[in-house]
Amino acid sequence: MDNNNPPTQTPEVNTPQTSIPAQPVVPQVQVSETPTGDSKKMIILLVAGMVVIALLVGGIYFFLSMQQEGKSNNGQSTETVVKAPVVKATPVPPVDTVDALDKDLNAVNVDTTDADFTQIDQDLQQL
């Protein structure tokens, strides 16, 4: 069955006959293939263009990074860093022994705490 043509209906005896419009003819355009030499040339041109673009982007990045580096030096020449020789320190015995802690505790003078706060109290009273 052809789906493009609608089924024909038989007209009844008392109805006038109507004509079915004909399907419009659509011209088909044939696409000609390009020769393989042209497509190879096009591919080569695209690859060359991409390489040129990549080189431009890389050059701009390099140029800008060199300018940024020049600004960070402020016109001074770069200095060479010389590493000092590593000297191993001898371990020091811990000072926090019980005797050292007792000495520090006895050196704290807690009898004069009221005298320390008298100056602060006077400053607060002036406010």
From TrEMBL:
Biased composition (Low complexity): 21-31
Transmembrane segments: 42-64
UniProt feature, compositional bias: Polar residues: 1-20
Keywords: Membrane, Transmembrane, Transmembrane helix
Sequence segments annotated as region (Disordered): 1-35
Name this protein carries in UniProt: Uncharacterized protein
Organism: Candidatus Daviesbacteria bacterium RIFCSPHIGHO2_01_FULL_41_23
